[in-house]
């Protein structure tokens, strides 16, 4: 996955950094479910890897609300070879009706010991919102 981060999105990233707690929980009834070997702690997923052994996580954005939302952008903010992100060619923007999901697969592998942080930013438009300012 590749994406170009606009000034608006850079500004949003700064806001998320400083107001992190506000962004950890789902909006409009949408939450992220995680499938695969991990621990969850304060909005972070901890993945312990054996050297040279691949693990795969599935991040599933599920609309548990009663109204449709639209996933407008997906930004895996990571520039390290330990993580590869795949969305199975699901196009964006992607409408998500109640009960519907969008999946992001994260392939994790390392050949050396270390700590490798990665952030995934999901941008959603809720019911009746339009444009990136409403996201």
From TrEMBL:
Instruction: Give the highest taxon in the source lineage.
Output: Eukaryota
rRNA processing: present as a keyword of the record? no
**Record-linked InterPro entries:** MOV-10_Ig-like (IPR049077)
Coiled-coil region(s): none
Keywords in alphabetical order: ATP-binding, Helicase, Hydrolase, Nucleotide-binding
Question: Boundaries of each Helicase MOV-10 Ig-like domain copy?
Answer: 20-128
Molecular function terms, GO-annotated: helicase activity
Concerning Pfam families, the annotation shows: MOV-10_Ig-like
Protein name, entry field: Putative helicase MOV-10
